[in-house]
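Title: Comparing notes on inverse folding

I've been comparing how different people in this forum approach sequence design from structure. To keep things fair, I'm posting one structure and asking everyone to reply with a full sequence. Here's the target:
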């Protein structure tokens, strides 16, 4: 047999097999579709039975929706569920059917519509346990993920805290609630939330996604709010002149008054403000007596509209150079204090 004849026979055989497989696959698909349609029609007939019980009705609807989900026939599923709820307002499982509707919209990336249905369940329907899970809790969890409106998110966070305290991290939610109040400019409520956060036993150790410095920021804001704030200056120029004059006069008492009374730090450039050893709880008297202190005529070149550094030296035989760190006060709670300047810390040694 020649190679040409052999290749022709082989090709013909392959085409027969492929054709046969295609017909088989098509037939199988048609059979599956017929089975699906038949099953849905049978379930629909059962659903329309006049004396069907509540639990049986729930099981039938659940099976029908499961079949539609498998087929990914989302539009038919949405229409079926919303029509059912509209026509059967007394169905005790209406909240669950709307929950499934919301899930479908999430799957379809239609999150604003999903948010409408999740919120509608919370507003219009009593809570319901399905497989041991609270529908209201599930709705709130999803709303927190997809809602972008601060007013709504505040409402959802408060509902989670008040209704499901054992199901969530109260510590984390107080921080997230405070952040939403900040976005609205409601600083009184933000401070209340931060204070509640600080009262939690795990506040200092919790790691919160997207809010890496939750504890030090909350601690500073609350402590600053509770302080006298009488060490702040109207401008950077006024602060710089006052500090320089105090150094020239070797007036350690004045320098102690000028230092921030909240989270003042004294540390090397490699340390972090949150380091326990960075706390600057000492008197300038201990470093001025017997030393000749000097300072640069102008602020360091690294200074900017919100931060400034004054290079000084002569404080100690061990670390002579200190950079005094001045910072603009960020405290929108009090417009009279916000934007003023404070001496916030000291960096030991030359800049790295």
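Reply #1:
Here's my take.
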């Amino acid at each position: 047999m020649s190679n040409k004849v052999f290749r022709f026979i082989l090709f013909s055989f392959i085409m027969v097999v492929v054709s046969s497989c295609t017909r088989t696959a098509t037939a199988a698909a048609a059979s599956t579709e017929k089975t699906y349609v038949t099953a849905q029609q049978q379930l629909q007939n059962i659903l329309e039975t006049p004396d069907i019980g509540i639990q049986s009705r729930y099981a039938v609807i659940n099976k029908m929706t499961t079949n539609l989900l498998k087929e990914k026939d989302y539009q038919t599923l949405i229409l079926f569920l919303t029509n059912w709820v509209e026509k059967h307002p007394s169905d005790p499982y209406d909240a669950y059917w709307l929950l499934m509707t919301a899930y479908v919209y999430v799957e379809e990336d239609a999150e604003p519509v999903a948010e409408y249905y999740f919120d509608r369940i919370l507003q219009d329907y009593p809570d319901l346990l399905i497989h041991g899970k609270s529908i209201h809790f599930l709705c709130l969890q999803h709303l927190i993920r997809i809602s972008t409106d601060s007013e709504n998110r505040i409402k959802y966070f408060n509902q989670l805290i008040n209704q499901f305290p054992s199901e969530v991290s109260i510590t984390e939610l107080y921080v997230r609630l405070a952040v939403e109040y900040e976005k609205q400019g409601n600083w009184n409520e933000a401070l209340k939330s931060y204070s509640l956060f600080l009262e939690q036993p795990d506040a200092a150790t919790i790691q919160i996604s997207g809010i890496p410095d939750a504890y030090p920021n909350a601690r500073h804001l609350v402590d600053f709010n509770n302080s006298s704030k009488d060490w702040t200056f109207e401008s950077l120029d006024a602060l710089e002149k006052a500090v320089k004059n105090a150094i020239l006069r070797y007036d350690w008492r004045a320098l102690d008054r000028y230092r921030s009374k909240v989270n003042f730090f004294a540390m090397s450039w490699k340390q972090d403000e949150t380091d326990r050893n960075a706390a600057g709880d000492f008197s300038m008297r201990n470093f001025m007596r017997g030393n000749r202190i000097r300072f640069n005529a102008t602020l360091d070149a690294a200074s900017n509209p919100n931060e400034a550094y004054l290079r000084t030296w002569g404080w100690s035989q061990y670390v002579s150079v200190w950079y005094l760190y001045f910072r603009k006060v960020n405290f929108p709670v009090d417009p009279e204090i916000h934007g003023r300047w404070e001496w916030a810390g000291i960096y030991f040694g030359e800049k790295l």
